[in-house]
Amino acid sequence: MAGFIAKWYIFSAAVQEGYYGLAIIGVLTSVVSSTSTRRIIVMMYMTEESAERRPLRRCPRWRRPAWASR
């Protein structure tokens, strides 16, 4: 809840100072972040665990970040 209140103050201050574009970008990125976080929470706590687990797919070597290469 504290994060919501902090974002509310930041976005309202941006609007009061006339930074409408910055406030809109901030709200949009917050929405994207909350949907991805909510999806993880739903998968962790609100879905049935299946007996069969699917293996993780490996990313092709050329698409891996440099720090993940061996």
How do the helices and strands line up, and which of them pair or pack?
Elements: H1 2-16, H2 20-45
Helix pairs in contact: 1-2
Description:
The structure is a single chain. By secondary structure, this protein is mainly alpha-helical. 59% of the residues lie in helices and 0% in strands. It contains 2 helices and no strands. The model has no long low-confidence stretch (mean pLDDT 81).
Percent helix among the residues? 55-70%
Low-confidence stretches: none
What share of the residues does DSSP label as strand, in percent? under 5%
What is the helix tally? 2
Element pattern in H and E: HH
Number of strand segments: 0
* Distance from first to last alpha carbon: 41 Å
Mean pLDDT: 81
In angstroms, what is the radius of gyration? 19 Å
- Category from helices, strands and their pairing: mainly alpha
| Main beta-sheet annotation | none
Principal-axis shape equals flat
Write a brief structural summary.
59% of the residues lie in helices and 0% in strands.
Which characteristics define this entry?
single chain, 70 residues, mainly alpha
